[in-house]
Design brief:
The complex is a heterodimer of chains A (278) and B (322). With 278 residues, chain A is an alpha/beta fold. Helices cover 32% and strands 26% of the residues of chain A. Chain A folds into two domains: 201 residues, P-loop containing nucleotide triphosphate hydrolases (Rossmann fold), CATH 3.40.50.300; 67 residues, no CATH class. The longest helix of chain A is centred in the middle third of the chain and has 18 residues. Chain A is globular, with a radius of gyration of 19 Å. By secondary structure, chain B is mostly helical. The chains are: A alpha/beta (278), B mainly alpha (322). At the A-B interface, helix 2 and strand 6 of A face helix 9 and helix 10 of B.
């Protein structure tokens, strides 16, 4: 479990996080949502020690993040940030091998090689094994980076906007893989995400941040409601139940549908690749 | 695939080593005969030793600097070390006359120069870099600003001093392998050698650092501490080689990028060795041309910049086509 206790962070006079306290339970997917500048990424970067909080502390499995040996912590939590445009001549396999650095310090043992191959297989990258990263498409690159995190084999995986710049097909692919990681391997996944419908369809819990404070941290059903979303984003939403998923519609302001009105036409609901229930 | 890359790397290294060795041999034996061997050979050996040492120093320090800053066009010279060196030399000539500059003991000059350059980067690292909310680019920026301040002050003083004194000073302004002090060479070899051994020993950590700050922290690297250690090592290496032969950073960008292009890898062990061999070849070749073709009418830096300029124009033309 991750415990966030009284975290505050300001940049100059600007308070980004204001005495934030909450918990992220183990074994499920938690999505951070909220308007731009609400403090989602800052919170994620503080939990993953990329950034220092002005006050407060973060506990991972009961121990403060700063008290861990950096290498030991790297075997417990992993993080993938947004901008990963590397200017390196590096192949997919070499990149994924870096995920084993906390264990092998760069001298790969048999076990490490096995995990690397397994992660490449898991993310469906076998055919791209020896391709250079800079020759891949955006979706393939993102999968390669996630494979590196999978090879790192940590209990907690943090991803900052993993769907950035990806089309719908690749977004669905990435989200399904995260779902599988959580379900099959018992990983705790935390993502910062803008598309609330992806958050609704794939995560177990949603943590909504507004103005540097946690507005709500609860199950999907409790968060994805017109009233809560309106308070978080300060705009109107309609929420529909489609095949057991809660889908929000917000594309036109002043849209006047009723909530329980069921849509018959098969509008482009792309969020799930296969009907699957949590 | 992996086998093929391995084979290619091995062949490249063999080619590189043969090229470097032949350049060194050519430089050593050209024009040697029974009558002048006792005079020429020891002198040439000292030159080759100084060239090899500074060549490896510049190549490796530029590579490591580019890795920690994650930028492929920077060299350690942006930290303002060679400007500081020139500034000190000019200041001494300006205040006490160039005679003092020429008369000051080599050891004193060497020690003071090294100490000031390392001290300067120590201040940059502790005061600027290791503070909350600061990053490496603030350090590079401050280094650049200080560097241009030093060079402006130097050129200001240079315009004021006596032209004859300026001539003596000018000798310090360009890298030269022509009168390297052997005992200083010995001390430098130990200092630079130890630093380079450390760098090569930790090459896997450098590989991780090239993934950037966030990925490095994710993989368990103690980022600020590690970067500070590397920055200080770089400044030690740069300071020692500058105090030994003069400002010679110009070569760094060229050999490191050539090495990246040729070896097509991110591995620092290969890149460092490749860039070092390249830089020794360029320097020995340059020195050969300076001595035998141009009869000391030009300097190695002029030649190396000429070759480097052509390389970059070729690079630009090639990139434009893609």
């Amino acid at each position: 479990m991750i415990e966030i206790q009284n975290i505050s962070k300001s940049y100059d006079q600007n308070k980004v996080l204001d005495h934030v306290s909450t918990e992220i339970p183990k074994g499920c997917i938690t999505a951070f949502i909220g308007p731009n500048g609400a403090g989602k990424s800052t919170l994620l970067s503080i939990i993953t020690r990329m950034n220092k909080a002005d006050s407060g502390q973060v506990l991972v499995d009961g121990i403060e993040v700063g008290k861990y040996d950096t290498n030991e912590l790297a075997q417990k939590i992993s993080v993938l940030r947004q901008n990963n445009n590397l200017q390196l001549r590096i192949t997919v396999k070499e990149l994924v091998s870096f995920g084993r650095y906390p264990y092998s310090k760069g001298r790969l043992q048999e076990e490490d090689k096995r995990v690397v191959q397994d992660s490449i297989h898991y993310m469906g990258l076998e055919s791209l094994n020896d391709r250079y990263i800079d020759e891949l498409s955006g979706g393939e690159q993102q999968r390669a980076f996630i494979a590196m995190v999978v090879a790192q084999d940590t209990d907690y995986i943090f991803l900052d906007e993993p769907l950035n710049n990806l089309d719908m097909k690749h977004s669905v692919e990435i989200m399904s893989m995260l779902r599988r990681l959580c379900k099959e391997r018992g990983k705790t996944v935390v993502i910062v995400i803008h598309d609330i419908n992806f958050a609704s369809c794939y995560s177990d819990r949603i943590l909504a941040i507004r103005d540097g404070k946690i507005f709500i941290n609860d199950t999907v059903d409790a968060v994805i409601t017109p009233a809560v979303l309106k308070d978080v984003y300060n705009m109107d939403f309609q929420v529909y139940d489609i095949d057991g998923d809660r889908i929000s519609v917000y594309y036109k302001s002043g849209h006047s549908h009723h909530h329980h009105h069921h849509h018959k036409h098969n509008s482009a609901v792309v969020y799930r690749s296969k009907p699957e229930h949590k | 695939m992996e086998q093929r890359i391995k084979k290619r790397t091995v062949i490249l290294f063999i080619v590189f080593m043969i090229t470097t060795l032949s350049a060194v041999l050519l430089f050593l034996v050209w024009g040697l005969n029974e009558r002048n061997i006792d005079y020429n050979l020891p002198r040439r050996l000292v030159k080759v030793a100084a060239i090899s040492l500074t060549g490896c120093a510049i190549a490796t320090s530029s590579l490591v600097f580019q890795t920690v800053t994650n930028n492929r066009i920077l060299t350690p010279s942006v930290m303002g070390l060679d400007s500081l060196f020139l500034f000190m030399q000019t200041l001494v000539a300006f205040l006490f006359g160039a005679d003092t500059l020429a008369m000051t003991g080599k050891y004193l000059d060497f020690t003071v120069s090294c100490a000031l350059m390392v001290g300067f980067s120590l201040i940059l690292c502790t005061v600027i870099f290791n503070k909350p909310g600061r990053n490496l680019f603030v350090l590079v920026l401050v280094g650049m600003v200080c560097g241009s301040l030093f060079s402006s002050l130097s050129s200001f003083m240079q315009t004021l001093i006596d032209p004859n004194e300026y001539l003596i000073l000018q000798g310090k302004m360009f890298a030269s392998f022509n009168n390297v002090n052997t005992s200083l060479l010995f001390v430098s070899t130990i200092l630079i050698g130890l630093s380079l051994i450390f760098v090569l020993h930790t090459h896997r950590k450098l590989d991780v650092l090239s993934l950037g700050r966030e990925n490095s922290i994710n993989l368990g690297i103690h980022y600020n501490g590690t970067v500070t250690v590397y920055l200080l090592l770089i400044s030690l290496v740069v300071a020692v080689s500058t105090a030994l032969v003069g400002p010679i950073n110009f070569l760094g960008v060229m050999v490191v990028n050539l090495s990246r292009q040729i070896f097509k890898t991110y591995r620092h062990l290969h890149l460092a060795l490749g860039a070092s061999l390249l830089s020794v070849t360029v320097l020995v070749g340059g020195q050969f041309f300076v001595e035998r073709v141009f009869h000391f009418n030009t300097t190695v830096s002029v030649l190396a910049n000429f070759v480097g300029g052509i390389y970059f124009i070729a690079l630009l033309l090639k990139e434009r086509r893609i």
